[in-house]
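EI: anyone free to look at a 54-residue chain?
SC: sure, send it
EI:
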Amino acid sequence: AGEKVKEITRKAMTGEIDFKQALRERARLLKGLRVEVLEAIAENLEITPGAEEL
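SC: here you go
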């Protein structure tokens, strides 16, 4: 999944896809994961300064 996230990020940064589409594609990668995995992701997620305001 890491490589897929990198590709989505690259496309968003180069303007190939917009923010909403990138967010949807990233969310699709989470579908089907166990709750424990999602909780671990949430606990280790680093929020970029200022991103919470978006």
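EI: The longest helix spans residues 2-13.
SC: 👍
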